[in-house]
Amino acid sequence: xxxxxxxxxxxxxxxxxxxxxxxxxxxxxxxxxxxxxxxxxxxxxxxxxxxxxxxxxxxxxxxxxxxxxxxxxxxxxxxxxxxxxxxxxxxxxxxxxxxxxxxxxxxxxxxxxxxxxxxxxxxxxxxxxxxxxxxxxxxxxxxxxxxxxxxxxxxxxxxxxxxxxxxxxxxxxxxxxxxxxxxxxxxxxxxxxxxxxxxxxxxxxxxxxxxxxxxxxxxxxxxxxxxxxxxxxxxxxxxxxxxxxxxxxxxxxxxxxxxxxxxxxxxxxxx
Length: 271
What we know:
Strand content: 25-35%
Helix content: 10-25%
Largest sheet: 7 strands, mixed
Structural class: alpha/beta
Number of strands: 15
CATH architecture of the largest domain: 3-Layer(aba) Sandwich
CATH topology of the largest domain: Rossmann fold
Number of domains: 2
Number of helices: 6
């Protein structure tokens, strides 16, 4: 429950409202171990704390990376952090993506907007052991070309011969030569063996609902589809109840769920 002090070592502006903080421990162990999909609670004195998915590489435990969108008071204060500033960190919390359990299978990584941040550690982990997986397809969507997150990395991943990257935007000017449309339109383009495949999804709720429907049409079983949910997490321990979804507390039982487990509740819009 007590935040551990971390120093900001790098600040990077990703988008007008989105930034990345790279942190290192100020005291205690020099390494911070986590699994892809887990999150931390970031604390700023006098402002409060917010949950944030870890977006760095699991193989680099000496640096802790968070990509954050400034949408409220606490994230607005964090946005003003610069190298040398100190913030508090609690975590890691939550259930991770089943990266190791999916070895040997084809993978679809499907995401929209800031949802790429929680899935970036998965991509790092897969590329570090690329020989352990089958075909890998990354599908990413944003509102416009200006809203593409981690654009340089997307270009670098797209240049590899051992995975396929599909990028689309909702709208674009004539100088955009990529796909235009929703991410679900790109699902039929994937080249996977649906009998031995799994999908990892993170993004806006409506996008995830339609993505699951399209993946099922493609032939995937719902137990092979995993989603990461975002709800109002405040304590990270399942005590406050703010993130409750049916019988689940997203901070403790999630944020990563197999769809056969969470689907009946996730599809109830009034919950």
